[in-house]
Amino acid sequence: MPTTTVDLRHERAVRKHKLAASYRLFSRFGFDEGAAGHITVRDPGDPQTYWVAPFGRHFGTIGSDDLVRVGEDGTVVEGDGPINRAGYFIHSAVHTARPDVDGAAHAHTTHGRTFSAMRRTLRPLTQDSCAFYRSHSRFAEFSGVVRDRVYGDRIAAALGDGRALILANHGHLTAAASLDAAVWWFVSMERCFQSELLALAAGEADEIGASDAELTASQHTVEYAELCFSVLYERILHEQPDLALSRPDA
């Protein structure tokens, strides 16, 4: 059945509202660091473009009407406000390399950037960390702020078909078939970094065996990630009524 204009407008409104809520959640969890960080969602009507918050805005104040849509060449094709150029180079590369990806998230979190300074990937120490078992990698290069698309393309190549990437001495990035899953995996990965850092500080930790880790990884589906996001979405709507007022009709 063909997508109607009404369906498209509704889907765009839903995606934009969830994106605004995601920025609020990042602020709520302390993931904002000045102007650093960016979350994007592909536009359903023009998939070569994506929505993002304007550069320099506090994540905790973002609403659907504040978002801007960015074209393939990095120009704002809808909305008003500047964009984070480093964010454009990273996200445009990921969205181009991964047509299956609708949502991507990156920020400079405390545990993410700490873990990224270590030459390691997440070990399967807990049920939660198994979500990233054999589905994340580490981009070992660090050459300062991402200033060109070539750098962004190298990041996208390192991500491959995974759901997450540790950026050396920088932070982490998640990508998924939906914004919901990308945001949840970002939140979960930050907490897994924290758990592993605590385990390292405490001493030895027992890893989950390879076969059990692989089984558990298969249970961390996109659908489960979307369910987990829905809980956070409900939370932020409850805590911040001004965001709930702009929620699109179901």
Summarize the helices and strands and which ones pair or pack.
Blueprint lengths: L4 H24 L9 E5 L7 E3 L15 E3 L5 E3 L6 H13 L5 E5 L2 H7 L19 E4 L9 H11 L4 E4 L3 E6 L2 H24 L7 H10 L2 H18 L1 H4 L6
Parallel strand pairs: 6-7
Antiparallel strand pairs: 1-2, 1-5, 2-3, 3-4, 5-8, 7-8
What key phrases describe this protein's structure?
250 residues, alpha+beta, L-fuculose-1-phosphate Aldolase, eight-stranded mixed sheet, 8 helices, 8 strands, 44% helix, 13% strand, disordered C terminus, Aldolase-II_Adducin_sf, Aldolase_II/adducin_N_sf, Aldolase_II/adducin_N
Characterise this structure.
By secondary structure, the chain is α+β, with helices and mostly antiparallel strands. It has one domain (5-238): Class II aldolase/adducin N-terminal domain (L-fuculose-1-phosphate Aldolase), CATH 3.40.225.10. The chain is built from eight helices and eight strands; from the N terminus they run αββββαβαβαββαααα. It has helices at 5-28, 85-97, 110-116, 149-159, 179-202, 210-219, 222-239, 241-244; strands at 38-42, 50-52, 68-70, 76-78, 103-107, 136-139, 164-167, 171-176. An eight-stranded mixed β-sheet has the order 4-3-2-1-5-8-7-6, with helices on both faces. The longest helix has 24 residues, at 5-28. The chain starts with a helix and ends in a 6-residue tail after the last helix. The relative contact order is 0.15. Residues 246-250 have low confidence and may be disordered.
